Amino acid sequence: MLLLAAVTLVSCTREQDYDAYAAGVSAEVPAWVNVSKKQLAASDPVVRGSLLRVSAGKTFKQDGVTYLGAVSGGRKIWVPESAIAATPREAVQEEVLYAQVAASLIDDTLSSHIFDLVRKGSRMEVLGFDRLLADGSVHRYNVRTGGKEGWIFGKYAVLTEEKAAERYSEFDDAHAAVRNSFNGGEAIGCEFRPYEKPVFADNPMPSPVNAFYLTISPVGLRRIDEYIALADSTNINAFVIDIKDNECPGYKAEAMEKYSPTNYRHAGSTKEALYKEAVEKLHAKGYYVIGRITCFKDSYYAQDHPGSSICEKASGKPFLHNNSYWPSAFSRDVWQFNVELAKESVRKFGLNEVNFDYVRFPDKMITIDGDMDYRNRYGESKVQAIQNFVRYACDELHQLGVYVSVDVFGESANPGYTTAYGQYWPAISTIADAICAMPYPDHFADRYYGISKPWNHPYEIMKAWGKRAQERQAVTVTPAVVRTWIQAYHVMRWVDPAGLDNNANYIERQIRGIYDAGLTGGYNTWLASSNIGVYRSQKAAYALDYPTLPQVDSLNAFITH
After folding, report:
1. Which of 311, 357, 476, 489 has its CA 20 to 30 A from that of 331?
2. Which long-range contacts (CB under 8 A, 24 or more apart) does 549-552 make?
3. Does residue 372 lie in a domain region?
4. CATH of the domain at 215
5. pTM
6. Share of the chain above pLDDT 90, in %
């Protein structure tokens, strides 16, 4: 217990008690209590910004420091005179801060416009702040750094340069061992500091989430009652509904009109009302609703903003990859468009969660990677850019009380290397609320994990993959919920014309595989058409309560139809 000895009792110049606020350079303001007439002992601190009733007439003084008597929440305490502020605005006393992680500098908090990247360790002069949180920490600081002014979230700012330079190193050995074999970036270059995952009391995330995917087609939205009736007879408790897919924008969003006129022009003029009605009906029946947005595969945005898109160095023209143009995941205006579209959709429809797909660079680029201009303004690696986008998206959307899920290729669960397209599982999982991998059985090569024709062995391949995913989760200090996309479509003919059908047996084998691997966060059904007839044919698999089922001890245990 810290004691202040030889304390001198002096008279206070104020004649009446008065209200003030606990002030300091951190969220907690030190407080003391009497242990005798001539001694103070350190006590539990008070929250910065707390209302204090300062007592008139008496103070303690020690070594030139004056301590004032006060009452906080019914507790009698003593606080240094310097820790008393006349207004809540004056309660924040820090003047210089340092960035603990690479974070976005926002110059317009209403539109989340990214002005610059604040690099780890950057010195920031404090100009102001927006508000104090309940624990006394600052929500966002207004800062000047590198000659530029903007806003940064308080959770990324610390008081000393030494503190900013520290790495969270619990799993650094594991990340340092990961190879940069395909120019995706060094894993160790990402940040793995714990990220506080929110729990919104008025928007609880089901556990598990079992979701039907619903396409952007107005036919599906108009038949929402039929999808609800089917889901009601199963253990489905959520729906994923497209907001924007590549060359398939949904409703005429204000964000599209402002940032991507071509998306706006192609969006459905009547879909906003359909979305609203569909989500209202789903919520009325207790379903959790997820809006899906594709990010960095968007030909319409690339058409509007070729300067923000991946281009060929030789020609300077946007690069056509798999019949699509790709806005660069390094380009902050692309980030802003997708996040603003997400925020608008949350406000308009009351979504519970936003799912971001195509959060990556193009795949199959290894041999031509050097021929591309990726618009890499900040010199980030691909894995750093993807992680920084996920951090930005989560920070912005969490303010609206909704969760964020991020789709990744099943390959990103592999150990030993970062992917060529910038997805490194722990770097995403440590920040996102849910990580939604796509380990579709027909995407695995023959003999993968030693399994012959894995698309015909959905249980075995999903269980083997799931164990790999668990290993990635084990080196993530704040891992996301793993919610897996399952293959609800027929095995692609070019993979195997004689592949297994997408019936209830096929669906059940996949889901049992991921559960038996220990991934219990649930599943989303990937069926591009979201054909209700197909879903009906698979109903028996969706009716099972997988968390209650024992591990498979015989392949005869599966549904036979």
Report:
1. 476
2. 549/512, 549/515, 551/516, 552/459, 552/512, 552/516
3. no
4. 3.20.20.80
5. 0.94
6. 90
